[in-house]
Amino acid sequence: MDTKESVPGERMNNFTRRDFLKGVGMGGGALVLFGEFGVHSAAWALSGEPVLKMVLVDYANCTGCRTCETACSSRNRPASVGAKQLPGLGNPRYANIRVHGFNPDVDVPIVCAMCADAPCVRACPVEPERKSGRRALYRDRATRTIRNDVDRCLGCRSCAAACASKRTGTLAPNPETGKPERICTLCGGDPHCVKRCPFGALSYVEVRRGRKFYGLGPDKIAAQLAAGWYGTADFGGVR
Amino acid sequence: MSGKAGYHGKILNIDLSTGRSEAVAIPREDLDLFVGGQGLGMKILWDRLKKPGVDPLSPDNLLIFMPGPFSGFPVPSSSRTCVVTKSPITAPLKSDYPHASTVTYSNMGGFFGPEIRFAGYDGVVVTGKAKVLSYIVIDDGKVEIREATKFKGMRTDPFDKAILAELGDRRFKTVYIGPAGEHLVPYSSIIHTAGRAAGRGGAGCVMGSKNLKAIAVRGSGQPGVADHAGFLAALEKARAALYGTAYAKSWAEQGTARAIVGNSNAGTEAVRNYREGTFLEADKIGGDAARRDVWVKDIACYCCPLACKKSGVTRGKYGGVVHDGPEYETGVMLGSNLMISDMPGLLKAITTLDDLGLDQISTGNVIGFLMEAYEKGMIDRKFLDGIDLRWGSVDATLAMIEKIAARDGVGRLAAKGVAALSREIGQGSEKFAIQVKGLELAAHNIQANQPRGLSYVTASRGACHMSGDDIPMQNRRAMLDSTGMCFFPTFEPALEEPMLALLSAITGREYDKAEFEKIGERIFNLEKMFNYREGFRREDDRLPDRFFEDAFTVGPKKGAVLDRTRFEAMLTRYYKDRGWDPETTKPGAAKLKELGLDLL
Fold first, then answer.
1. Residue A195 touches chain B, beta carbons under 8 Å
2. Is B519 left (phi over 0), alpha (psi -120 to 50) or beta?
3. Å between A15 CA and nearest CA of chain B
4. Considering CB atoms only, which of B242, B304, B313 is closest to A230?
5. Which residue from A70, A105, A230 is facing B74, i.e. has the nearest CB?
6. Are the beta carbons of A66 and B307 separated by less than 8 Å?
7. What is d(CA A56, CA A39) in angstroms, rounded to the nearest whole number?
8. CA–CA separation, A138 vs A122, rounded Å?
9. Counting one residue from A and one from B, how many pairs have CB atoms under 8 Å apart?
10. Looking at chain B, which residue has its C-alpha nearest residue A84?
């Protein structure tokens, strides 16, 4: 992939919702910004809702150790021990963050990008509930994370397909039920992957759509990184 | 199956001759007495190779892939897989059995051991021989043997990509051999992630003898633990002992490559086929130079906060992607030991060896021996198929590597190792054929380091630098390599207490320092019993004459040489302290009873 295409200019790298609103306020700039970010981002920016936050990866510092997977799993898949709920043993199968390893060595942790326009939610075919307006998949008002109402979910895999074709592809249908898994919970505002990363490669930040690699899938990110680091992006055609 | 916390309680047996596989229960007692990894692997080998002298390359040999009780849990640096088998490269001086050889165990980092545990097993044992080149796919409870003939001869880097493309999911963890293993070079390695190796002792050769190109594993489970809250608390402490410490950072900075200059300065490096302990050009191939010119990424194994693996890229004639290196062993064996100081050339040799699936240490040692024999006029260019094998020549080294992997021409003989080479060449070359029991020495030179000499001669797999320089160290290492944890973080003293607490919480069995060492002693003694049964005696625990005759001529340890009388006295004391007969090295009845090995 051509670097220029996927990486908006410097100006965009530090672009926040406040900047967006400022841009809109200045009139003419708004059209340009609408063009780059899409109408749904604009709707989000103008909605007055709280800022979205996400887990950001510094790929240069990621060593591929997968401690983040175990920390995520431990926090989000607690275990019942006697009468108590305790953090789990960190089986990476249940992690919402997943490190994709490549040859040559590039490691790309993929986690929910907290998309303002949430293509996964928009792809959900379940009739919105009258009172809450929620489909089976929805954005939680309090945590600002995506959640799935398992009882109403049809297991149709539309959300995962939308995530895979439009964004990071983190959402994965459960092999048996088809219902989406690997939805980041942000651990109640204290993401354990960030806290446990031994190399400081993860941080908890405000979503900025113009940020380099934002919303891309692992193969695209890995190809760009490998080309820069090793002068090759030949991974042998593995999906 | 065993109902024991911390384990699945089962081993996956795969017989390539019949194509059948089954999960079998591990006796609970074996988990208590031998733990996992190197120890449990040894116990399985002992139980199932009932008689001595089994041909290591016959279908009867076992190829055992062992994680440990830490594997599959997020215990820092618990990424290791121990491959246990009967060695295809070692041999005693005298034996009643034509195929007598030692046990061998080769330990690698990465992601394979944890994945075996995710798939629901505490180990995988491969026996038999497939009719055609094959690979095994283990997907949780499903086991399949597939044909691999289309991959025949494929080098490990392209194969690493090709096998994942075929499997269609990067979450599969794979191990595989290169052309050298297929050609049954006795010191072939097993490669994982294109740049990690179970290199020492010829496990890749045994894999080749089974017509097994690769194993792929993917799993979704995890064993339970005995004390959940205790596990979580000890895990916090273990992380705190390592995370963000200067100790951890020093590993991330240079990995083992720091010692390329450090050991040269200390006079303990293998230089010019162990003739010297100091390489005057070490700085050209050391960690600082690599950080400046080569490395682009620090890479870690599963849940490791050290990140000692370095990947990078070189340019020019020898340019290309570097999966790992130089590390200490690879950098010295192909660098200092061959007087090669050209960094891209060195890395080309290292990368080529992994690509072909050859043990870096044995290969570097073999080429060093040939360079010396060539310099001394004991062999000529015709013997070397026209290769001008001079000290420092990258091109000649690369040519020889290809010959060895293909077992072509001079490579047929060189592939057998330095013991066989020196027997063929004669002329007193045994003196500088740097091996013990047939296994080549590693990159630590010993004229100025007698304790490391003890490690080389008493290690169970032949000349091993990792075995330990004294009895307590040997016992601790044998135990550590049975847990799934890496050796590198354990230099940090603050890790010891939480590590023991984790082991106790996982297994529900109390481990203190003494018990940890005691189990290691049991494992080490069982290895010794195996080797003794094969015919290894005290005369096999011997170093080449070079170390007693050729004093260093350069560096801070100039003049250093081992004293034979002192060395033999140290050995005699060692056997006595071990409770072994100093004449024969036979483990004494009292010691075996103490360790619970008397009934085996």
1. no
2. alpha
3. 29
4. B313
5. A70
6. no
7. 24
8. 9
9. 118
10. B229
**How much is the average pLDDT of B464-474?**
97
Using DSSP bridges, classify how beta strands B124-127 and B10-15 pair: parallel, antiparallel or unpaired.
parallel
Q: Is A196 on the interface with B (CB under 8 A)?
A: yes
- Tokens 């090709």 label which residue? B162
Q: Do A238 and B323 lie within an 8 Å CB cutoff?
A: no
Question: What pLDDT score was predicted for residue A40?
Answer: 55
Determine the pLDDT at residue A46. 60
d(C-alpha B513, C-alpha B360), whole Å? 34
Q: What is the pTM of this model?
A: 0.94
CA distance B275 to A14: 59
List of residues 6+ apart from B587 with CB closer than 8 A: B525, B528, B529, B532, B578, B579, B580, B597
Q: Phi/psi at A29 (nearest 5 deg)? A: -65, -25
pLDDT for A118: 97
Alpha-helix residue ranges (DSSP H) falling in B143-286: 156-167, 179-182, 203-209, 228-242, 246-254, 258-266, 282-285
The C-alpha of A55 sits at a distance from chain B's nearest C-alpha, in angstroms, of 19
What are residue B410's phi and psi, to 5 degrees?
-60, -25
* pLDDT at site A48: 61
**Kind of pairing, strands B435-436 and B212-218?**
unpaired
Mean pLDDT of A21-42: 47
Phi, psi of B127 (to 5 degrees): -130, 175
Contacts of B103 (CB under 8 A, 6+ apart): B42, B45, B84, B85, B86, B87, B460, B461, B527, B530, B531
Give me the residues of A, 24-53, that contact B with CB < 8 A: none
- pLDDT value of residue A146: 97
CA A171 to chain CA mean position, Å = 9
What is the distance between the alpha carbons of residues A201 and A224, in angstroms, rounded to a whole number? 18
Residues of A in contact with B243 (CB under 8 A): 198
pLDDT at A42: 59
Q: Shortest Cα distance from B120 to chain A (angstroms)?
A: 12
